[in-house]
Structures are given as structure tokens and as C-alpha cells.
Amino acid sequence: MSNEPKLLKATPATIAFDIILTLIVWVLFTLWFRPHVPSYDPTIVLLISAFTAAPGAGTFYFVLNMFKVTKAHQKELKEKRKHA
Q1: pTM for the model
Q2: Which residues, in sequence order, are CB contacts of 39 under 8 Å at separation 6+?
Q3: Distance CA 38, CA 75 (A)
Q4: Which residues, in sequence order, are CB contacts of 45 under 8 Å at separation 6+?
């Protein structure tokens, strides 16, 4: 049996799922930040809240992928312990 770790495969479907989920989080963050923008102009409020939500959505994307990698690694370790 090989000691090489199994690679986590990124398929177009998983990439699309991650991007769609990240866009949903970005929209939710944008809606959440809108009341906190100190302006009466709706365009400015939308722009500021959208630009403020972008780093949060980007962080969510990284966290989601780190979670998937950690989950795959834990599953691999569990299988190794089961067969040992």
C-alpha cells in the first residue's frame, strides 16, 4: 500500500459550486452592510457595501476550501486507522 496522500480533485462542478456559494455569501454581506453606509445616495450605498463585502466573500472562499481539504484529510486518516 502506498503512503502517498490522495489528492483532492477539483472538478468543474465543485469549482462552480464554490463560486456560486461565494456569490451568495457576497450578496448576503452586501445586504447586511447596506444600512451601515453613511450616505443617502442609493448608488453610493450599494457601491460601498458591495466593495466592503468583497473581502469577506473572498475570505469565505478560502475558508470553504480549507474546510474541504481538512475534511478530506480527516477522512483519509480515518480510513488508514480502520485498515491498520
Answers
A1: 0.83
A2: 45, 48
A3: 47
A4: 34, 37, 39
Torsion of CA 46, 52, 54, 60, to 10 degrees: -130
The residue with cell 466573500 is 57
Give me the amino acid identity at 16.
A
pLDDT tens digits, one per residue of 43-82: 999 999 999 999 999 999 999 999 999 999 999 999 989 8
Quote the cell numbers at residue 1.
Answer: 500500500
Three-state DSSP class for residue 84: coil
Each domain of the chain, given as residue ranges in start order, spans 12-83
The three state secondary structure string of 1-44 is CCCCCCCCCCCHHHHHHHHHHHHHHHHHHHHHHHHHCCCCCHHH
Q: How many CA atoms lie within 13 A of 64 on its CB side?
A: 16
For the record, the C-alpha cell of 60 comes out as: 469565505
